[in-house]
């Protein structure tokens, strides 16, 4: 140890020196053995050094090796050599095995003069600071960013250009997204290096200043990638492209404007040579086709046909050839992305002629726009028009069917009056009537889909409605399926037809049951959704408003995507023959739409399906003239005696319906006059001198429809009672009448008893 340049001293557990080497004696200024002191005594007058010795002693006591660096004026010899210059020392301490004679471990202290090393560090830091100062105030901007895009260094020049306060800047507090405008990020992200290499590229783009203004710059951008493929930090020199001498201002300005247009254009743009290889592309091109080709492929002049789906390449290449030939008008090419057929792209071709210089290679300019949303809207519109057309057809067919069924049902009733239960023909007549009623149910479903059925809306509390339905639904879904109902708190009222809403709930519950042949769980759920929350749901066509939501959720098989888009179409069914008409969900759709609500379906194959019905919140307005509940007119009870002696004018263009109605009313004692149209009805009224007690009229008739007949009759007979019969909803024609028009309504198809009851009640009703 005597030959070592570092001073070394070994002390026992009591701090007494066991062994010092010559370098230690020389450092501490000792001239003989008696002058050598322990290190803690040598440094006792230096507070900072004493603290360091204390920390080192504690570390050794804990069995650790440690070191400290201390600065001592005049050195350990306290200026014995005549110099009071500060000296830097590195002090190390570690424990040694002391043996039995020392009764504990020894401590080895090592002291090294590191003044030259510290001076070298100081010189390095000064030079580094000078370099940073030069970099900070260079005439070019500079920044470095980590792989996450966070800026870890920004020089003063670039900070000044951007309006960034460097005193507030900390590494990572700014990102590239904060300073790069428009689609410039796509250009930056597209630059990648192979593992273990670096890559330099030049990018023209705009930066965003803190005041919102843009700054046209040119990036000399360097990226590097580690051998394991992990991206490293980027280093980028930034030049202000707006600067230049007076002679180049116009040219530079034009170049900047073009670059801004090229890189910020909302469509993808690519220049190609005569063989269809890309020469240059803009940021939007890299953005749209990022999953198909990368920047490296583009730099290697990839063939543009590679971004076109294989099935459309022949059409694309023909259009490209037309552009190469200088053809001015070329039809756009619609295609999808290779490997992602859900994204639709439309290409436009333009020929390039008479260009020189750098652009001499260009043979055509290709622009492309993504039309995915447009295609989706077109499909939605086509589907909507299809549903509307089917609805109109269904409504028309249903109206005609209702006339036929009305005649069948009333004829059956007339036959039943003459054939008792003991008659051999009785079962056949009942079978005719029952099947006619079954057909009437199917017609009602068609009308529900076409939104032409008659609704009787009333104020509903869905909590009460579902509570009343629980027993029925439990029986319908069976014992293998758990039925759960989650009631929302303080549900808002809604206005809907109670019977139709119950039909919706039953239909959805039965569909959910059929989706779980091996059992599962059906959850009916209600809740309020305020307008602000509804806006966040992003359901198509759902206006921002307050809603009460009714959900039917199952844990069944789920619905595939190709089936999901067709579930509301009439006659579409996935059930076996005889197990479904294909009208259930279309009926639900029609009822909800006619009620003013919205219905959506979320489904995942193998997990289940949820139908969500949004019903508008009803905000009731109490009027001052509303009568108290106790004073309101009592509900008219159903008539039990259906006979009468009044004079009835029956107006119906369908002969079978009119004949059945005449016989039905005559059998009850009424005097009946019949007319096949509104015009004929007016003539009969004139012949009778207005001696008619009640008019029963169809709505849709040739020459003059029912509403027009009502208006004409009320001109001369304002108090005449009037009943409309129709296969359409009441509100389908009531809107064409004055708001105060009073009339009764009987939906087709109806039975003999229903017709007689409605006439009797209308005659007894007090206006």
Query: Overall pLDDT, averaged?
Result: 80
Largest sheet: 6 strands, antiparallel
CATH class of one domain: Alpha Beta
Unreliable runs, pLDDT <50, ≥5 residues? 577-582, 623-636
Architecture (CATH level 2) name of one domain = 2-Layer Sandwich
H/I helix tally: 23
CATH topology of one domain: Heat Shock Protein 90
The CATH homologous superfamily of one domain corresponds to: Histidine kinase-like ATPase, C-terminal domain
Q: In which order are the strands of the major sheet placed?
A: 8-7-6-11-10-9
Question: Terminal Cα separation, in Å?
Answer: 126 Å
Q: In angstroms, what is the radius of gyration?
A: 46 Å
Tell me what portion of residues adopts beta-strand conformation: 15-25%
**What gross morphology would you assign?**
elongated
Structural class: alpha+beta
The strand count comes to 28
Helix content: 25-40%
Brief summary of the model shown:
This protein is an alpha+beta fold and 767 residues long. Helix content is 37%, strand content 24%.
Describe the protein.
The modification 4-aspartylphosphate is found at residue 698. Keywords: Kinase, Phosphoprotein, Transferase. Residues 396-619 form the Histidine kinase domain. Residues 647-763 form the Response regulatory domain. With 767 residues, this protein is of the alpha+beta class. Among the domains are: 7-121, Beta-Lactamase (2-Layer Sandwich); 138-251, PAS domain (Beta-Lactamase, 2-Layer Sandwich), CATH 3.30.450.20; 458-616, Heat Shock Protein 90 (2-Layer Sandwich); 647-764, Response regulator (Rossmann fold, 3-Layer(aba) Sandwich), CATH 3.40.50.2300. It contains 23 helices and 28 strands. A six-stranded antiparallel sheet has the order 8-7-6-11-10-9. Strands 2-1-5-4-3 form a five-stranded antiparallel sheet. It has a five-stranded antiparallel sheet with strand order 13-12-16-15-14. Helix 21 links the parallel strand 26 and strand 27. Helix 12 (372-418) crosses helix 19 (655-666) and helix 20 (678-687) runs parallel beside helix 21. The radius of gyration is 46 Å and the shape is elongated. It starts with 6 loop residues before the first strand and ends with a helix. Residues 577-582 and 623-636 have low confidence and may be disordered.
């Amino acid at each position: 140890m005597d030959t070592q340049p570092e001073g070394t001293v070994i002390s026992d557990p009591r701090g007494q020196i066991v062994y010092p080497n010559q370098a230690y004696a020389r450092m501490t200024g000792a001239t003989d053995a008696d002058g050598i002191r322990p290190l803690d005594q040598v440094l006792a007058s230096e507070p900072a050094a004493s603290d360091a010795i204390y920390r080192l002693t504690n570390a050794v006591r804990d069995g650790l090796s440690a070191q400290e660096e201390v600065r001592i004026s005049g050195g350990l010899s306290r200026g014995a050599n005549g110099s009071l210059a500060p000296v830097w020392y590195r002090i190390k301490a570690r424990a040694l095995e002391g043996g039995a004679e020392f009764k504990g471990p020894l401590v080895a202290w090592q002291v090294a003069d590191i003044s030259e090393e510290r001076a070298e560090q100081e010189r390095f830091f000064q030079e580094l600071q000078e370099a940073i100062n030069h970099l900070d105030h260079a005439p070019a901007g500079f920044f470095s960013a980590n792989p996450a895009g966070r800026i870890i260094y920004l020089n003063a020049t670039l900070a000044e250009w951007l309006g960034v306060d460097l005193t507030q800047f900390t590494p990572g507090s700014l990102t590239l997204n904060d300073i790069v405008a428009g689609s410039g990020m796509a250009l930056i992200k597209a630059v990648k290096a192979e593992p273990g290499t670096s890559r330099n590229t030049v990018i023209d783009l705009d930066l965003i200043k803190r005041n919102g203004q843009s700054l046209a710059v040119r990036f000399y951008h360097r990226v590097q990638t580690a051998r394991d493929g992990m991206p490293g930090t980027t280093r980028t020199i930034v030049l202000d492209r707006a600067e230049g001498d007076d002679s180049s201002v116009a040219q530079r300005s034009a170049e900047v404007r073009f670059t801004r247009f090229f890189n910020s254009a909302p469509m993808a743009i690519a220049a190609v040579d005569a063989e269809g290889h890309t020469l240059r592309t803009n940021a939007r091109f890299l953005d749209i086709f990022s999953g198909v080709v990368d920047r490296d492929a583009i730099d290697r002049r990839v063939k543009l046909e590679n971004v076109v789906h294989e099935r459309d390449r022949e059409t694309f290449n023909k259009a490209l050839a037309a552009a190469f030939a200088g053809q001015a008008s070329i039809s756009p090419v619609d295609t999808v992305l290779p490997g992602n057929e859900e994204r639709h792209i439309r290409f436009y071709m333009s020929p390039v002629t008479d260009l020189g210089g750098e652009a001499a290679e260009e043979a055509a300019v290709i622009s492309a726009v993504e039309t995915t949303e447009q295609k989706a809207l077109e499909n939605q519109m086509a589907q909507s028009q299809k549903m509307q057309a089917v609805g109109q057809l269904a409504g028309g067919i249903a109206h005609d069917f209702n006339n036929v069924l009305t005649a069948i049902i009333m004829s059956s009733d007339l036959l039943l009056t003459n054939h008792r239960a003991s008659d051999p023909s009785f079962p056949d007549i009942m079978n005719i009537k029952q099947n006619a009623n079954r057909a009437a149910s199917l017609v009602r479903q068609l009308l529900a889909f076409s939104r032409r059925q008659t609704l009787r809306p009333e104020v509903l509390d869905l909590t009460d409605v579902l509570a009343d339905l629980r027993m029925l639904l439990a029986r319908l879904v069976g014992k293998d399926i758990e039925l759960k109902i989650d009631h929302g708190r303080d549900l808002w009222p809604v206005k809907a037809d109670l019977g139709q809403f119950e039909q919706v709930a039953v239909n959805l519950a039965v569909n959910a049951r059929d989706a779980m042949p091996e059992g599962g769980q059906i959850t009916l759920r209600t809740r309020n959704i305020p307008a602000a929350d509804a806006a966040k749901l992003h359901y198509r066509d759902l206006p921002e408003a307050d809603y009460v939501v009714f959900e039917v959720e199952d844990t069944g098989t789920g619905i595939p995507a190709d089936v999901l888009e067709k579930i509301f179409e009439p006659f579409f069914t996935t059930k076996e023959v005889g197990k479904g008409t294909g009208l259930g969900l279309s009926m639900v759709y029609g009822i909800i739409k006619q009620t003013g609500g919205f219905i959506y379906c979320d489904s995942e194959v193998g997990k289940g399906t949820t139908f969500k019905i949004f019903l508008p919140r009803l905000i009731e307005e109490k009027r001052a003239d509303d009568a108290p509940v106790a004073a309101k007119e009592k509900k008219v009870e159903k008539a039990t005696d259906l006979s009468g002696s009044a004079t009835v004018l029956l107006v119906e263009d369908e002969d079978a319906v009119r004949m059945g109605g005449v016989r039905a009313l005559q059998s009850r004692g009424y005097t009946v006059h019949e007319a096949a149209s509104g015009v004929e009805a007016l003539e009969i009224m004139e012949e009778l001198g207005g001696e008619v007690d009640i008019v029963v009229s169809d709505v849709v008739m040739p020459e003059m429809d029912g509403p027009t007949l009502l208006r004409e009759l009320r001109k001369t007979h304002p108090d005449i009672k009037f009943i409309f019969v129709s296969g359409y909803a009441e509100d389908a024609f009531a809107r064409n009448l004055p708001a105060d028009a009073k009339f009764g309504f009987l939906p087709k198809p109806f039975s003999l008893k229903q017709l007689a009851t409605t006439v009797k009640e209308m005659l007894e009703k007090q206006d």
